[in-house]
Write a structure and sequence with these properties.
The chain is mainly alpha-helical and 414 residues long. It has 21 helices and three strands. The chain folds into three domains: 206 residues, no CATH class; 93 residues, no CATH class; 73 residues, Winged helix-like DNA-binding domain superfamily/Winged helix DNA-binding domain (Arc Repressor Mutant, subunit A, Orthogonal Bundle).
Amino acid sequence: MAYLSMGEAHRRITDYLSQFSTAVLNQDGPSLTPLLLVSSNSRLLVSLAHALDVFSDWLRLVDQADDQSQLLSEIVSPLFRCLQSFRAARFADAYVYFEKSANAFLQEFRNWESAWALEPLYGVAYEIRILAEKADRELASLGKNPEKLKAAGSYLMKGFGVLAGKSSKRVGALYVTCQLFKIYFKLGTVHLCRSVIRSIETARIFEFEEFPVRDKVTYMYYTGRLEVFNENFVAADEKLMYALMHCNPQRTANMRMILKYLIPVKLSIGILPKMWLLEKYNLVEYKDIVKALKMGDLRLLRHALVEHEERFLKSGVYLVLEKLELQVYQRLIKKIHIIQKQKDPAKAHQVKLETIVKALKWLELDMDIDEVECIVSILIYKNLMKGYFAHKSKVVVLRKQDPFPKLNGNPVSS
């Protein structure tokens, strides 16, 4: 770092204070926002941090500021200490100071009648989550309790409470909600999303279409993921499709995140993605699963689940994909039915259980007739096959018309 004189340090600090005061006085949200983004590594804040280290009596400058002094003191003083701690990689300390500054900012925001400071509030909401994540990593590495992300969630709930009213500020509620979702998913406390969702979807304090597209996409992505975890595939499909259709196609990373959950949902309701889509968004882990469904190859499905187990478990879709086995069995028996139809059309609807056992052996899967009979019973029960058993002859008699109903966008019945 280049040498900085006391005079230059003094000037940088007073320039910042002047920018902050002017932005608040003029109710200029876009100008105020970058002054709050401690983790941004902007040239302004990096040079300010250097100035604070050189000019140790900066607190006096804050106190001497003109008619905005109390506001500056309560918001900016802890913000400066946060900046110093952040630049020194003391993230737990940085979080503590930032939370103090954020609380003061929220109190002022509550008093401002108009919604001019929504953008700065978004910045504060984002920063408190980012700093909390860094603080928790630091605390965990020191063998201490990583508790800051949970504290950030509590702060954001306060912010949500301020926004979820009937004023023009309510449009900011969805952004804060999305930051809350990111925290709850990170902490594994997704059940806490429910109360916020109820406020958004049930209370009808405001219409969903009022919110910015960016926030609607993020909201639908996270609520869609919740529906995946709860195996509500029709609702998950609706929400994730909304997110995909409204997502900026230039944001390929975001498109990929949505598709990572949408594809298992589509597979569960009988809709197979094209291979080009998997390649375009680098979702090749689903390739063999799609092939297995097309071919009725249970061995290939199980191999794909083992090969990508860690990835599927991490994203929470492993159990969803594992349940595709029934569809694979259906496709296998359907293939047997088609082959029999070519050889002997008159008896095509009579499939011997022994034939299914042989097909599974060819796939290196050893199953006896009783196990196969159990699987076929489940397929009939879940409406994946239409037919009945002739138990004495160990034959499944398929209905002659449409023996293998398509899911047509509906999940396998429970």
